[in-house]
Write a structure and sequence with these properties.
Radius of gyration: 13 Å
Number of strands: 11
Distance between the termini: 40 Å
Shape: globular
Order of helices and strands: EEEEEEEEEEE
Helix content: under 10%
Largest sheet: 7 strands, mixed
Number of helices: 0
Length: 115
């Protein structure tokens, strides 16, 4: 069984920064792609950023240049550094890992960008 625990969400003013973390535990030997997705109120969940096991990254156009995804393979943890936050970045952020042919999701962490 695999568990994902997210942390780092909260309330921040426009222009501020937050760093999200997602730690995976359980029967894990090698995680392939790790990523972050977000769901804004009234909208479908969408891609924010992904990172492969060798460090190749992919970002949604709306966050390029502001967000940085990284991972620590020794800790089975993925991070999302979010800078220059905007109100439209508000939503629930979910991490996802692809492991042995399955997707595993975290429980989500709320990010609210508001003055």
């Amino acid at each position: 069984q695999v568990q994902l625990v997210e942390s780092g969400g909260g309330l921040v003013q426009p222009g501020g920064s937050l760093r999200l973390s997602c730690a995976a535990s359980g029967r894990i030997f090698s995680i392939s792609t790790m990523g972050w997705y977000r769901q804004a109120p009234g909208k479908q969940r969408g891609l924010v950023a992904t990172i492969t096991s060798v460090g190749s990254t992919n970002y949604a156009d709306s966050v390029k240049g502001r967000f940085t995804i990284s991972r620590d393979n020794a800790k089975n943890t993925v991070y999302l550094q979010m800078n220059s936050l905007k109100p439209e970045d508000t939503g629930v952020y979910y991490c996802k890992i692809y492991l042995n042919g399955y997707d595993y999701w975290g429980q989500g962490t709320q990010v609210t960008v508001s003055s």
